[in-house]
Design goal:
Elements lengths: L12 H29 L3 H9 L15 H26 L6 H27 L7 H25 L4
Helix pairs in contact: 1-5, 3-4, 3-5, 4-5
Length: 163
């Protein structure tokens, strides 16, 4: 396969199937991540702040302790290794789509920056200002949109019939 002039439409059926299964499995994983965020925060900013900084108020029904350094480090470790791998594979597939190179480059940069900010945000909320919590949903919105765009463009380029 000539990589320089290759497009997803030119991939053989086995490669297309492999890439499609990877993309769909990754989308499922991202959806499960949204369920986890809902379970932790109910998609509310104040609950996200409480999750990271704790709630030691006596009138609380349950006392929530701040996320420990070890807990934040554990999550950061897993995400800092797994997300770049996921994004590299998605970006590699996406780079063969029919979208323009400028568009593909912008989306790839956006998703990697979003991943970085998303992984940095819990640390900022826990150890600096509670106002940094807004970086988390903002980065997740850009990450999610980029992820969906990469998936859609890749699948569309891969399986559409040329006219």
């Amino acid at each position: 396969m000539d990589i320089k002039n290759s497009s997803l439409a030119g991939w053989n059926t086995a490669l297309k199937t492999l890439a499609t299964c990877f993309i769909l499995s990754s989308l499922l994983g991202y959806g499960i991540g949204f369920l986890k965020i809902h379970q932790i925060t109910n998609y509310k900013i104040d609950q996200a702040v409480t999750y990271y900084r704790g709630d030691n108020l006596p009138e609380s029904e349950t006392m929530l302790f701040p996320q420990s350094y070890a807990s934040l480090l554990s999550v950061a470790h897993v995400h800092s290794f797994s997300q770049p791998l996921l994004l590299f594979i998605m970006g590699f597939i996406f780079s063969f789509s029919n979208a323009s190179n400028k568009f593909k480059t912008g989306i790839i940069i956006t998703i990697f920056l979003s991943s970085f900010v998303s992984n940095l945000s819990p640390w900022l909320v826990r150890y600096t200002s509670t106002q940094t919590i807004y970086l988390l949903p903002a980065s997740q919105i850009f990450f999610g949109l980029s992820f969906i765009i990469m998936s859609w463009c890749s699948l569309k380029s891969m399986w559409s019939r040329s006219r």
